[in-house]
Amino acid sequence: MITQNSGLRRYGIHNFSIPALATKLPDGRNVLTCPSAGVCANVCYARFGTYQFPAVKAKHQRNLARFLDDPQQWETDLIAELAAPKYRGGKLRVHDSGDYFSDDYLAAWLRVARGVPDVLFYSYTKEVSRFRRLVEPDPPANFAWVYSYGGKEDHLLDPATDRVADVFPDEAAITAAGWHTNANSDLDAVLGPSPVGMTQNNIPHLRKAIGSRTFREWQTTKRTRGRDVSRNTAHN
Length: 236
What we know:
Blueprint: H1 6-9, E1 13-16, E2 22-24, E3 30-32, H2 54-69, H3 71-82, E4 91-94, H4 103-115, E5 120-125, H5 128-134, E6 143-148, E7 164-168, H6 171-176, E8 180-181, H7 188-191, E9 196-199, H8 204-210, H9 215-235
Parallel strand pairs: 1-4, 4-5, 5-6, 6-7, 7-9, 8-9
Antiparallel strand pairs: 2-3
InterPro entries: Gp88 (IPR020290)
Protein name: Gene product 88 domain-containing protein
């Protein structure tokens, strides 16, 4: 179930993936895998390019289906796989696509992390309220995360107290905002100083859609417009 994509290989990081945003499994089940996704869903790199190759897509669906079909066996198999010597002292990014889509799924990952204490597990997540309830009170020592802007729960975040990450147009914009970059290593998002900035992906039509705004700015604009529409509807 564990793999290593080209972007993370250079940092010596392995990864675990499920389909991004939502998927229809071969048996017909529809599964929402990023329930708190906001504007990020429109320009998610994991919904384009190599992530949509049939073999890659099938592997991500298998990872998801194995959990849904038999979560206890999925947990046992994952712990056994990560116990292999090559992972000892290593790092695993949970979800270079997908997110913690349910309480049971997140709880299972916390047990996996506790079951393999010599591996560092880390994630970007938009599941803020779920993490507030299930992770923040008692996180495993080897489980790190960063809340990434661009989701429906952005308004719950406080950069002064939460570890946060945002997507910027370029490195110059990150520096101008006074944020720290993860350009040197993806691990800087969870181990380096916060708040953390990262640059847009290089897919031309996605860069055009994002423009010069950050995900945080984009999501704030969308939320404000939504409130205005609701207000106007209530007054009519």
